[in-house]
Amino acid sequence: MEAKGHGGQVDFDGQYVTIKRKGFLARSVVGKGEKRLHISNITAVQWKPAGMMVNGFIQFTVPGGNELKSSFGSQTSSAMQDENSVVFTKQQQPKFEILRAAIDTAIVQHRAPQVAQVRLVSVADELAKLGTLLQQGMLTQREFDQQKARLLGM
C-alpha cells in the first residue's frame, strides 16, 4: 500500500513503513532517500488533516526521534522539515487516511499477542508455584483449589 504526498511518499507492507523522497523538493527540504521504520518502533502517529487552504501531514514518532516542535500556525511547514513526516494535499488525503488506518491496526495487532503471552506465562508460573506449595504441604487442597480458581477467573 502506498500514498504519495507533497515531497514524499509512504509505503506500508504490513511490517515496515517506508518513507521515500525523490526529486528537487526532497533534496532541498529533508534530503533524498528512504527511511524504513518497523511497526514495533512506531510509538505514535500524528495526523493533521488537510484543509481548503492548507496541506495536512502524517508524522511517525519513534524512540529517540527528534521531532520538530512548531509554533502556532506553522505545523505543516515544520512537518516538511521533519524526516519522519510526509505532507499531503486535500486531494491526496484519502489514500493517507487508508494508510493511517492500516498502520494503526498493524501496531495494535503487533502489540496484542505480546500482552496476552505475558499474562499466560505469569498465570502458568503462579499455578506452578501453587502446585509446589501444595506438594510441600504448605497449602491444603482446598486452599490450592481456591487460589487456582482465582487465577483462572473461575
Detail the topology: elements first, then pairings.
Layout: E1 2-4, E2 9-12, E3 16-21, H1 23-29, E4 33-38, E5 44-48, E6 56-61, H2 75-81, E7 85-88, H3 93-135, H4 141-152
Antiparallel strand pairs: 1-2, 2-3, 3-4, 5-6, 6-7
Helix pairs in contact: 3-4
Structure report:
The chain has 154 residues and is an alpha+beta fold. The chain folds into two domains: 2-109, PH-domain like; 115-152, no CATH class. The chain is built from four helices and seven strands, in the order βββαβββαβαα. The chain has helices at 23-29, 75-81, 93-135, 141-152; strands at 2-4, 9-12, 16-21, 33-38, 44-48, 56-61, 85-88. The strands form two sheets. The chain has a four-stranded antiparallel β-sheet. A three-stranded antiparallel β-sheet has the order 5-6-7, with helices on both faces. α3 packs antiparallel against α4. The longest helix has 43 residues, at 93-135. The relative contact order is 0.15.
TL;DR?
By secondary structure, this protein is an alpha+beta fold. It contains four helices and seven strands; from the N terminus they run E-E-E-H-E-E-E-H-E-H-H. A four-stranded antiparallel β-sheet has the order 1-2-3-4. Strands 5-6-7 form a three-stranded antiparallel β-sheet, with helices on both faces.
